[in-house]
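Thread: WTA complex, take 2
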Amino acid sequence: MSQLQGEIIAAGAASSNLGNYEEACSQFHWEDVEKQFTWYETGKVNMAYEAIDRHVDEGRGGRIALLYQDGDGRQESYTFEELQEKSNQFANVLRSKGISKGNRVFVFMPRSPELYICLLGILKIGAIAGPLFEAFMETAVKDRLEDSGAVALVTTTALLPRVRRDELPLLQYVFVVGDNVQKEEGILDYHSEMNQASTNAEIEWVNREDGLILHYTSGSTGKPKGIYHVHNAMLQHYYTGKVVLDLKQDDVYWCTADPGWVTGTSYGIFAPWLHGVTNVVRGGRFSPGDWYDTIQRYAVTVWYSAPTAFRMLMGAGEDIVREYDLSSLRHVLSVGEALNPEVVRWGHKTYGHRIHDTWWMTETGGQLICNYPSLPIKPGSMGKPVPGIQAAIIDDNGKVLPPNRMGNLAIRTPWPSMMRLVWNNAPKFEEYFRIPGWYISGDTAYMDEDGYFWFQGRIDDVINSSGERVGPFEVESKLVEHPAVAEAGVIGKPDPVRGEVIKAFISLREGYHPTEELKAEISRFVKEGLSAHAAPREIEFKDKLPKTRSGKIMRRVLKAWELNLPAGDLSTIED
Ligand code: WTA
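Output below.
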């Protein structure tokens, strides 16, 4: 199927936590993972306890948990004990407002120590955390807070204007991190609330199946879906942290993802702290020099990033790599979109490290198909299923296909970190499980004779731009709010650095003329109303868009236009 299949980069000699892959798979029992947690003995469950407090109780409280640095010169470090105290304080702040178990509490702010402290505090009272990416604008913020029924939000002075409090009757409290917080009903000054709160707090013990976090993510139709995860997910986070991230006690670990996306929580908070390792968080924007400097400055050993970032680093060249000491690195991983073989080869040559691809989704809560330190890598392949996970390629009727046949990438249900609900949307949830016994990912792939999985694409129209999932419907809905836009169809257009960029096909209303200024204005309209990463980078005006007889815009035809491909079956087209 692919000429790439023959290429192999051998496993390194270094010992890894996984050991022999086949042996690990055949001897695997989730119960052995459960034994790693205190609740296996005590019956008392809480993710925040296992991630933070436990290390203090077991004498590791003085270790550095968080090393934070941003582009504005803020640089701080926190031990596990300090994080315990601060998150206790925030738990007490929330409790003092009557907020309790099961309530949804959102955080909408750039990466900062406060973001991590608040998230842990939310979990400590058994509330459900909802992280929002800082680039979200008014509509995106409102849709998510409204759908989830959030009662409280933590944000910053700069982001507060994007919160339409008058349209969110359930949102009672907004904690604002910043100076000179305005005095208004329902607005609370985070720092003065924290200063009044005790550093001791009782943890709310929950059930393994109680809510942990809601991550909103895009599909091809409808508004973003609230993917609901429970505390039980910690089994997957812990186990993959051990065998995929290969975390060891003294590691300094850096995950470059923002907690607004699932990678930034499952692997930017939970997995590293369940292992008690030092977690590096770098705020601010991407720049090759700053990134290499982060690795050098903190002597990062395990680095988890994304194809877009690696492609940009590749674009920055090899000379800049030599200006930094990256010799601390031991293990490098990637997630979010297909990792090009070229990038794997470049990383191997330039960093002297194999970049280990990992496949998973917001809905899966944790890594499922991965490359491991102790296994050879086939550049271009996502690797093999995590021990304990059964993956297969199945056809639309649920028949498992033999090797080298392309089909639906599916996972045997259940596994510990599988989503438990789509918030407020049972039909959407059920769509993923329409074939009994399987979770249907929406990705297509094939498996080769050696059991390696190869990503082929999406079944639906979901766009993956720089590793961020963008739903075309959300962008189209925003576009048609613009007075000039009659109709809009949005597709992902292949791009060498970003994977895909967003391209919009637009038909204009009477009286509007197709100009470059109008294109720029429409793009800005989406950027300011929805979010920067959802704004079309390219706009093409058309007199008419291809539609089905029932009036649905046929994105498949738009894509075929764009790529100069045959448009396929047009029997349902309008005219
Ligand atoms: C894509 C991110 C190819 C895929 C954790 C999936 C990938 C979607 C890979 C999930 C990979 C993720 N190779 N494609 N290694 N990892 N994807 O929910 O299409 O933001 O369905 O989760 O990203 O994106 P999400």
